[in-house]
Design brief:
This protein is 31% helix and 19% strand. The chain is α/β, with parallel strands linked by helices.
């Protein structure tokens, strides 16, 4: 029998923001004590229609570096999947957060992809603001990502039928340096080429914005290879309608959406609403200090005014989902 929301245990995300780690990474400060952190229990975006917004929790994160396997879903409800059997095979998507990001940054996107049959993995990298494990010499994104796929195939016995990486900001570098030409890549608020000037081969979807104060659209466009096809927002808005009719729109293998309007997304508008609201609740009082000391705030100041995670997701999630289904399934 199909489960209902009365029969299942709802998933929650245990999220930490560490002021010590933020101070270390942005300003090189080592004097902030670890206890000056805050833990949040976030509600999955898909479950918001059933539950109130996640609130702060005193529960500490004590696990070392782990991967967060997107939890199984009943209908459009994210459930706790500790006792659920994992799939034996399927399309696998790695979600790579940015500098001072977290493994929950793109959780809203992972939830929709999981609902569409993708196996999603979101690791916490050393540059995370969560600080849920100590930084170790030599432990970098490449080693963590490689180990994750070893665990996926060797320990969990899951065979990827196709592979993709979605990166936000610094995570775009992770996306471009991971895998081979058969992998699909989605680059959000990052550059389309690596530091050596080489562009990834294979399918790539790029998202950028003229209102991004951390990675400007001008710099992105100046580096954009000529084979990319520019998409526009009106085109994107028709994707869900076309899919519902059973005639999904075919997207170019190399696609780029550049938001270009006065209220275009900023650098962190792409993140899940719960993640951004947690940052606002803790970090807003510190923003004047950061500005006075010329510490980069990665558009946090802009997001305080725009609060546009949901509006951005309404465009980004259907686009990314349609693109990955076309390229991977």
């Amino acid at each position: 029998n199909a489960a209902t929301t009365d029969d299942i245990i709802a998933a929650t995300y245990s999220h930490r923001i560490s002021l010590k780690r933020i101070g270390q990474l942005l300003a090189g400060w080592d004097f902030i004590p670890e206890f000056v952190s805050k833990d949040f229990t976030l509600t999955p975006t898909m479950n918001m229609q059933y539950n109130d917004v996640g609130t702060s929790s005193s529960t500490e994160l004590t696990t070392e570096m782990t991967t967060m396997m997107t939890t199984p879903m009943v209908g459009e409800y994210v459930m706790n999947g500790e006792q659920v059997k994992l799939p034996e095979k399927g399309p696998v998507v790695l979600l790579a957060h940015g500098y001072l990001g977290s493994r929950f940054d793109l959780s809203h996107l992972a939830e929709e992809l999981a609902n569409q049959g993708f196996i999603c993995i979101s690791p916490e990298y050393p540059e995370s603001l969560a600080s849920s494990y100590p930084r170790k010499e030599g432990l970098d994104r490449g080693k963590i990502t490689s180990r994750i796929f070893d665990i996926l195939e060797t320990d969990l016995k899951i065979t990827p039928t196709s592979r993709a990486v979605i990166g936000h900001s610094l995570g775009c570098g992770t996306a471009m340096s991971t895998g081979d030409d058969t992998w699909t890549r989605v680059l959000i608020a990052g550059f389309p080429v690596m530091r050596n000037g080489m562009a990834p081969k294979g399918p790539v979807l790029l998202l950028s914005s003229t209102n991004d104060g951390a990675v400007s659209a001008g710099r992105v466009l100046s580096a954009l290879p000529p084979e990319y096809v520019r998409l526009d927002e009106d085109f994107i808005k028709g994707l869900a309608y076309d899919a519902a009719k059973g005639s999904p729109t075919k997207l170019p293998q190399k696609s780029a959406l550049i938001f270009n309007r006065p209220d275009a997304p900023n650098h962190i508008s792409y993140l899940a609403n719960g993640v951004n609201e947690a940052m606002i609740s803790l970090l807003s009082p510190l923003l004047p200090v950061a500005k006075a000391l010329n510490i980069p705030v990665l558009d946090f100041d802009k997001y305080q005014d725009s609060r546009d995670s949901k509006q951005t997701a309404d465009i980004v999630i259907p686009l990314v989902t349609a693109y990955l289904k076309q390229m991977m399934l």
